[in-house]
Amino acid sequence: MAKNPVRRSQLVAPFGIGAMIVVQGGVGLLTAGLDHWYKREDGTTDVIEDEYIIEEWRLQRLLHVDHFRLPPDYREPWRYDSSTPNIGLTVPFLRFPRWHFCSWCDRLDERPLSERGRPKCPECNRDLYQVPFVSMCEAGHLQDFPWREWVHHQRFPTCDGTLRLKATGSATLSGQKVSCDKCKKERNLSQITTANPDGSTYLSKFLTNDNHDFYCPGHLTWLGEGVQEECTAHLRGSLRSASNVYFAHISSSIYLPRGTHSVPDELINLLSNPPVSTHFNITLGALGGIEIAGNLEKTVENIAKQPQYLPKFENYQKDQILEAARIAFGEQNRENDLEDDDSMMTVEDFRREEYKVIRESIDEELLRIKSANLQDYDPDVTEYFSRIMLVDKLRETRALTGFSRVFATNEQTLSERKAMLRKNQASWNNWLPAYEVYGEGIYFEFDEQRLSEWEQQPKIVSRIQQLDTRYGSVQQNRRLREQEITPRFVLLHTFAHILMNRLTFECGYSSAALKERLYVSSNPAGRMGGVLVYTADGDAEGTMGGLVRMGKQGYIEPVIRRALQDATWCSVDPVCTEIGGSGGQGPDSCNLAACHNCALVPETACEHFNRFLDRVTVVGDIHNPQLGYFKIR
Question: What are the residue ranges spanned by the domains of the chain?
């Protein structure tokens, strides 16, 4: 970390556990599993882990973890005195790929994951460089390319001759050849990255001559040497710099207060966060847990009397502290009773909690929302919305829940994804890496009556059905998760994109700084139709208020008008508008009238990888302007 710094947030994404990174000198590294985070190489135990613990009660409940931890920040020994904790603490990385080649004599040489410095060629004593190829599978496993097996066409080759990787000058993979000095066999790398729609790959099918597929060995390389599990996925070759080698799975939550009219949110947070929460859990556990009557009250009395905590609780009554403890630890106890299963809470349920809070004014330390008076805005804009909220401050927690390779999503459950982050699955080791950001935003809630009438138009229903059918085919071929695609969802998603694109010109934020958060549900028991456009990349004090100001009367109306006007005509129209009826466009062909020139945003800003977009749902097209929810005047 000292010589090769990485931002703390980057250790969650895009360089989280299992990801590859190239550092100074062109050395490729693999972010190691969580087992050795917050540990020193020399084995000393002076690390204070509590310093990095953060709490987010809703996200902990959703992901079934005890807490989250910030990636450690590197503290230069010469900058701090000896009383500063965790000086010199780093995050472990492994050298990967292990196979290296010599640019002078073409020799291939395998080195351990723990290799340091620049290795030398044993023949000519020149520098060795890591090979540009790796192999992986859809289940998320990663390993070195099977050089020896490939050149010998054998599952378990017995020849141990020196291998050489030669470039013949061709720009294709067929121009890369691997040979064996001992048996003189040679084979080029043609089609090693080829895969079929059913998931089978050229590498698995033709690696050997025994007419049997060569399946992935299941190597969990980021967890250390020799760590592997059974796997039946097909192995595929890849350039180590390919964009599909790693997709971080991030879950995020906007902080919602838990306080009541008698118990302030600050008191609940005090009890929920270290060091008080740590002391509280130890004392409560020693007494037998929260299930035994009276133990919670005894624990409250014990903690409140501790000299180090007296200043923290002196302004609160005993009844307040007890009620706060019931809220904080009662919820925790219920979470522990839940099975670790994705079905326990859906994304819709999780978002609905935020939806209920963000629609009302609130003034808390970590969440400040003001309601804008719609009567003050121009009627030609506000007739489409029922509510506009100005979010002056919010806190978002982003946690790494796992990763995938080859495809951005897969069928893995939450527990399966979490299991790939560490080797030790002990119950006391139940945490995930995360970081917190503060920001601001504008919330738009669409008029429900107008929205319901619009989404029932037969032409709109049939148009979105094409998108749903297309994604269903992709989902089956690539084993992706289910996604409900409705006219309401596509409209709100596309509106968020075109508004973000326009706001980047109006308020100075970069295109990657703004993000969307969709609150969508067609459930008759509780419909949702809201969009939060926000930025959360500031420091602990948040951002500077530029986005909130753009949401005020006199500022947001021209922004929306320009955004809608921009959406009526794309620079590649009529192709962009008409291509939806001939196979779609964009990622997985899951967009209709939407391309990089009109509706796409940086993938980090989009919740759905720039899929499920259609400008026609927003403003219609030149032949059918009535298909758009908004009417351009």
Answer: 9-94, 100-239, 257-337, 346-408+434-627
